[in-house]
Fold these 3 entries.
Entry 1:
Amino acid sequence: MNGLLVINHFLNTHKFNELHAHLVKTAKDMSIGLEIKTNLELATEKATGDFVLFWDKDVNLARRIEKSGVPVFNSSDSIALCDDKARTYVELDGVVPQPKTLIAPKCYFKSDMTEFAEKAVNLLGLPLVFKECFGSFGAQVHLCKSVDDVLNLVTERPFVLQEFVKESTGRDIRIEVVGNRCVSAVRRENKSDFRSNVTNGGTMTAYTPNKNEKNLALTACRHLGLTFGGVDILENGTVCEVNSNAHIINIMSTNGIDIAPIIFDEIRERI
């Protein structure tokens, strides 16, 4: 079995390079050929192989590869649903519990969102969480304590406003799903930030999810069509976010569970 690992050309840092090297080594150890190709290279080339492990969010490229007949994991549709926080919320609405969320009305340039922000405060209370629809590692997530805080963050980029789950301040559970199994989990905690992301100073400890948490993670991934994914669950039992290509090295360093070979085994079964 031979495939491509598709990565983003413009994310060339130790954090990403370490992950990519680990995936290639794991594939080699499993007698799988895995060649790295960037989205820049494939913008002018044709993807070939038995499969593509798509570790990026360039959904147009992923869809083009799919249409050429090469199986892509995760699929372009799944990546698109996870990458856009508004789409994730809508897709999972009524499927799994989520924090109360309002999606900002679409605008084509920076616009006056005062009316929306005021109504959101009345419905969600303060503080509330401002999230740009596209972003990673918590960098585009902010805690707002007033309408003005919201308005100061508004640009032309799409965003959602979400209720602040106080009991989960700086804490959540990350469950990794592959196929129809919960294969790994950690508890994340940040004592100096309301966001639990390790990038923002959070720490991880090994965790054993309960039956309800496992069901939430499996249901979310199944509904989003994910072959593999990371599901973040807050202390009140709501699904906060779902990641189509969560960073797996930190989790492995925490609980000793290497998710990479499990992903390759799942791909083997599916092709």
Entry 2:
Amino acid sequence: MSQKALTAIHASPPAHWVGDGFLVQPLFASLAFGQEVSPFLMLDYAAPHQFKPSAKPPGVGAHPHRGFETVTIVYEGEVEHRDSAGNAGKIGPGDVQWMTAGSGVLHEEFHSRDHAARGGSVSMAQLWVNLPASDKKVAPRYQTVLAGTIPTLEIADGKGALRVVAGTYGEAKGPAKTFTSLNVWDVTLQAGAALDLAITPGDNVLVALLSGKVAVGADKASGTGLLTFSTAGDSIALRAEADTKLLVLSGRPLAEPIAHYGPFVMNSEAEIREAIDDFRRGKMGRLEEFA
């Protein structure tokens, strides 16, 4: 195996609020929506944050998306989702929501009513995954991926665990259905764990450090940030220098133009203008106020 070279360690930008329910760090920073992270677009991480009990669930009200997928991984707390395609669901710790916006959908995300009433810690990550041009207008789809359906493998000589949310790891296959070849691995490592991961040559690979400290050769990163690697080579080698939590993302770059504006990601500015017009005309559906 030939190792992919570490190209950069990107420090996380300051956190900002999304709605009133999610205090997030945009880990892709200036790389977001670029070819270096394709087929992924952006990644927000909400570190554990304590919320007081509230009769009104914090979160983000109805907003549109077109041309990509949102992947929400809950670490602490509970998140409720509704969309204009008629989908609804609640996910808790370890669960994943994989929503394909496709041709266009309105959705909302709030802390669950039960969790909001109790108060407590909320932590989650939301990844945006691009769709190829041929699938940007597929019908919206919603996948609830419960923790119990996600293969969890012992790694690093018993000093770590890897959950296969999407793609494959060895013989294990993740339950999430995807449009392109990609992997989403949710990884925890104990201090001192060493891990070698096989990566398909030519694929982009991104290691999102959510907490802890990790080393790649002589280079070290701690806290929260993003590690990027060269496309050449077929593996990466990581060593945890503290108890560490990671998201490892790899996939075949789409090699297509990317045009984005707010909640829309298409291949041209003309398609962005069409998306805005379709949203204003109500072609992405309606979402009545939650009762």
Entry 3:
Amino acid sequence: MLKECWKNVQDRTPLVHNITNYVTVNDVANVLLACGGSPIMSDEPEDVEDITAICGGLNINIGTLNQSSIQAMFLAGRKANQLGHPVLLDPVGTGASRLRTGTANRLVKEIKLTAIRGNISEIKTIAFGQGTTKGVDADVADAVTEESLPAAVAFAKNLAKRLDTIIVITGAIDIVADAGTAYVIRNGRPEMGRITGTGCQLSGLLTAYLTANPEQLLEAAASAVVLMGVAGEIGWENMLPGDGNSTYRNRIIDAIFNMDAETLENRAKVEQM
């Protein structure tokens, strides 16, 4: 699974249209280049349909919304649906405000989504139509632990079935699920949470992997999550005295750039449930 999905990204160089937030847009672009993909960023309503048409996948991130970008998300989403392109939604901070929650709920209802990626608080808000969240971070009470893992897996599968999409819940333990199968992934480092945008970067990776692996979407999503986690581990191992979170961000991107299929497979901590 991991080797094949990784190789398909290298061979197919998926072109991804990103309507993402201005906090992490450069990091998302660099991660896509590092993994073997190619990024285009556009959130102008008059531009996005043409851009989506020349790309293979669409990554929608609601981290810094405005009325123009919201319009662009729906225009691009509908165009991607018409073309049969994969669409990923990253509902950043949904539950934190009425605008974010309402926009995410509308996107789920009106756009056919291939995958939804968020922390557990964001995914619960998607499931129930409303919720609360600690800014763009998951509430402590919502954390997926070994004890709560079976219930979290069942929740992800049920939501995937109801919405007919892949659900990706990221945190200390990651869950990638469709209606019938879930992959539980334990790669990564807690220090990744101290960098702005690792989730946004992962959403870009996910879209590239979905675009390059249309025959095995669930496995592609799981492979992207493993890749991000392994890169976080390698990046941390390469830290030097005096390095901080800015350097760590760059080392994660470098680890993705230098990744090979054997390292990815050998370091993967993934099980099927």
